[in-house]
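Design job #97: recover the sequence.
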């Protein structure tokens, strides 16, 4: 059985060795780099299951690397960084990262988040046969290529976390998703009353699909419950 491959980019060699021991002991195959040189080619040329990226790197920083990788691949990306400010976390998730772990971290939490990100990625790439294209309010969401197309037929760029959020809303129309569910979807962690990441994720998505984001008609707020997609959803199969 082939092992899942995890590529770590961090200029702290000691930390790389520590992470390698954790992950290899848990059954993963691990490779390292101290900078992002050649990372795009590595992602395309090998079967990497997940990227662990430090934010502060020599040369190109982790945010820039994540943006470049996301243009080429939907491989799960987890930031592992000492930058704990909420604005940095939000920026990382908006770029398309799947999670954001701050240093120092617990081994069990790191492994749990790695498991979760890889599992979600596998579920998202699963061919749903007759449910591969979802249409709602004139929008088209391709559940295979994870692309969003507007009423006018123009493809609209969405991050992997935005895709997960939208596909969850589409799969459960007229059903409220709680903030806790949303946050687990976009970052693999639980929501707290002081954490506005779920609300910010909804706001970003509304800006892309609502005619008037300040008066949303597609994704509505359900008081004390969360958010729901109010549009009818139709499914069709994917044809090449």
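Job complete. Output follows.
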């Amino acid at each position: 059985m082939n092992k899942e491959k995890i590529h770590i980019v961090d200029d702290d060699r000691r930390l790389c060795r520590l992470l390698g021991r954790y992950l290899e002991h848990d059954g993963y195959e691990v490779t390292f780099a101290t900078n992002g040189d050649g990372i795009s080619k590595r992602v395309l040329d090998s079967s990497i299951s997940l990227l662990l990226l430090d934010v502060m790197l020599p040369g190109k920083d982790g945010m820039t690397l994540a943006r470049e990788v996301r243009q080429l691949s939907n491989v799960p990306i987890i930031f592992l960084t000492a930058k704990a400010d909420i604005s940095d976390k939000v920026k990382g998730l908006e770029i398309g990262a799947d999670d954001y772990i701050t240093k120092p971290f617990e081994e069990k939490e790191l492994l749990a988040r790695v498991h979760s990100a890889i599992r979600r990625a596998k579920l998202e790439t699963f061919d749903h046969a007759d449910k591969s294209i979802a249409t709602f309010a004139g929008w088209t969401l391709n559940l295979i290529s994870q692309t969003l197309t507007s009423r006018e037929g123009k493809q609209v760029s969405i991050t992997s976390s935005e895709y997960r959020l939208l596909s969850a809303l589409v799969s459960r129309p007229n059903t409220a998703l709680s903030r806790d569910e949303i946050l687990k979807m976009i970052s693999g962690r639980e929501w707290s009353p002081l954490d506005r990441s779920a609300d910010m994720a909804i706001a970003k998505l509304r800006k892309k699909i609502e005619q008037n984001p300040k008066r949303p008609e597609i994704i509505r707020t359900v008081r004390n419950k969360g958010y729901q997609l109010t549009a009818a959803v139709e499914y069709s199969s994917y044809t090449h």
